[in-house]
Amino acid sequence: xxSVRTAPHAAGRATKxxxxxxxxxxxxWDLPLDEAPLAFLDLEMTGLALDRGDRVIEVCIExxxxxxxxxxxxxxxxxxxxTWDARSGDVHGIAxxxxxxxxxxxxxxxxxxEILDGAVPVAHAAEWDLAFLHAExxxxxxxxxxxxxxxLVLARxxxxxxSYALAALARAFAIDPGTAHRAGDDxxxxxxxxAHVVKELSPSTPRDLWMVRIGENEPRxxxxxxxxxxxxxxxxxxxxxxxxxxxPKEFGMVMTAVDGPHVxxxxxxxxxxxxxxxxxxxxxxPLPP
Length: 289
Known about the structure:
Blueprint lengths: L37 E8 L10 E10 L2 E9 L28 H12 L3 E4 L2 H14 L9 E2 H8 L7 H7 L10 H19 L4 H5 L10 H13 L3 E5 L7 E11 L2 E7 L4 E5 L3 E6 L3
Parallel strand pairs: 1-4, 4-5
Antiparallel strand pairs: 1-2, 2-3, 6-7, 6-10, 7-8, 8-9
Helix pairs in contact: 3-5, 4-5
């Protein structure tokens, strides 16, 4: 695994979930979503500059399958000397004295790798978490996951919100955030946001979620397949569509052609012609009676 030398791009500009190329074939990425182990992950750090020596000071990971927690790890982490300045506790409220008796990351690294093994990591602004996780694991000669699901990317596709920060999404969905920027509470909030995303996107597998892209006219293969099947059948379907300037809309449609990044058809019952950007189609389902 390549060494991480600098922090990733600004989280607010995330356009896809982390991973160079698609995730590995087979489990866990191609399991039905309720059978796939998911590792909900949050790290707190002394700062966001890997190249200036910032380190992890708290970690929480919950391994969940079908809504059931299979394993959980939560720990403060001693980042070592020379990594703390007067501003480090401003965001998360963790004081340097609190970490005096905390274990170094090296002593929990094996447990971190074990709980992540064979699971799909899920994080908010996941590129940051993976970058710091890789850096910490590399220091002790271990490797971390290369791919993850990013609820920041998924929420930006599924919803229309003034802010997609985790705390803002918690307010929008009436999720109690607990103490913001503490790993355990953030993981609980993350799981709540993920549940809302899944309800809106109706994915079949973790890979289906990983294929979500923002700002690229690249649709999810599952959505394309559903639209092509609707064209073949020629019967009305219910489409959930996320326009650029509003939240998801549901309407009836008869699809007549899939053409590049678009699907064409006519509305029902009005029969007005309609062209949709496939990348913004969230769901295609049978039209209710």
